[in-house]
Amino acid sequence: MDITMGQHDGIGLVNLAGMLTSDTSESVRARVQSWYEQQDCPDVVFDLSRLDFMDSTGLGVLMAILKMINEKSGQMRIASMQKKPSTLLSITRAYRVLDIYDTVDAALASFQNQVDETEAE
Fold first, then answer.
1. Contact 1, 19 (CB under 8 A)
2. Do 14 and 41 form a contact (C-beta atoms < 8 A)?
3. pLDDT of residue 114
4. Average pLDDT for the chain
5. N or C terminus: fewer CB in 10 A for the chain?
6. For the domain 2-120, what is the CATH code?
7. Percent of the chain residues topping a pLDDT of 70
8. Residues 87-90: contacts with CB under 8 Å, at least 24 apart
């Protein structure tokens, strides 16, 4: 499992590559949590374009990270999912609680669109 973490225009960006399974999930959760707690950006996009496989334990990690981000008044977006992880989200209906976008650019833009809508009110 390869993890790259950074920022793009004040939004956290996490890229997961490889397989998010019971063997890798705890280290992924710990690394993302440690990184997130040191950031000054509450919102995060997870780029899953290189995530080949995810099992239910991996999905549990994404849900735990979502909870952590929400508790700090942030929001999480999922972008560029491959077929196998996408199938897992369909089977478990996790797509009902995760904001999923086709591309990283669309996920990043959704935060800007949200700001624009708030300012219009």
1. yes
2. no
3. 65
4. 92
5. C
6. 3.30.750.24
7. 93
8. 88/54, 88/55, 88/56, 88/59, 89/59
For residue 1, what are the contacts with CB-CB under 8 A and spacing of at least 6? 16, 17, 18, 19, 20, 24, 27, 28
Residue found by looking up tokens 């999905």 in the block: 59
> At 22, is the secondary structure helix, strand, or coil?
coil
Task: Return phi, psi of residue 25, to 5°.
Answer: -65, -40
Q: What predicted TM-score, i.e. pTM, was given to this entire model? A: 0.90
Q: Which residues pair with 44 in a beta bridge?
A: 12, 76
Mean pLDDT per block of 10 residues along the chain (121 residues) reads 95 97 96 95 97 96 97 96 90 90 96 61 51
